[in-house]
Design goal:
Blueprint lengths: L1 H6 L4 H7 E4 L4 E4 L7 H7 L6 E2 L7 E5 L2 E4 H10 L6 E4 L12 E4 L1 H6 L7 E2 L2 E2 L4 E4 L4 E8 L2 E8 L2 H16 L7
């Protein structure tokens, strides 16, 4: 993966020399550095580092040492001394919350399980995760993704009943990664 190649250039030592990380707040701050001009130190030292890179998702990003990095991955490198093996998930689904207790190294599938529902309404009807209207039968179908496949959970008279079936299956199949809204 091309982004991994760029990411691997930065070491934990280089990161710690340039930035301080507060594990409780998840905020990175620039340190005073000997390798940059006094003007840059005066402008940046002590100030928060990074910006919201994708307005649609809210992930924080930082350009440093010839590469562009997501702050959740930098937090992992800073705290463990190693790049994450997979993806860094935000437990609370807030991509700007890079507090250490909110981060975990997970597979792509686990990360997808922890996603919020993309839509809050569907044609004016509140959208419930795992439930969709089945036009042919006039009932609500419940399904869930597991191991890369869609698992059919049944047809129900209401969206709430289909969502309840989804909640039960998500708890059983996804455990700590179950997300209901």
């Amino acid at each position: 993966m091309a982004t991994e190649r760029i990411t691997k250039k930065l070491t934990a030592e280089q990161l710690r020399q340039a930035l301080d990380y507060d594990p409780e707040t998840g905020i990175f701050r620039w340190r005073h550095r000997a390798d940059v001009s006094p003007h840059i130190n005066k402008r940046d030292a002590g100030k928060p580092a990074g910006w919201i890179a994708r307005k649609s998702t809210g992930h924080m990003k930082l350009t440093f040492n010839g590469g562009s990095y997501f702050l959740n991955r930098l937090a992992w490198l800073y705290m463990t001394g190693e790049w994450p093996e997979f993806e860094v998930d935000h437990r609370d689904t807030d991509p700007s919350n890079n507090a250490w207790t909110n981060l975990r190294d997970v597979t792509h599938e686990q990360n997808m399980r922890n996603m919020r529902n993309r839509r809050t309404t569907l044609n004016g009807v509140p959208r419930l995760k795992g439930a969709r209207f089945h036009k042919r039968t006039g009932r609500w179908q419940a399904s869930i993704r597991h191991d890369g496949k869609s698992v059919y959970l049944g047809l129900f008279p209401t969206a709430e009943a289909a969502h309840a079936a989804y909640r039960e299956a998500a708890t059983r199949l996804h455990g700590d990664f179950a997300r209901f809204a």
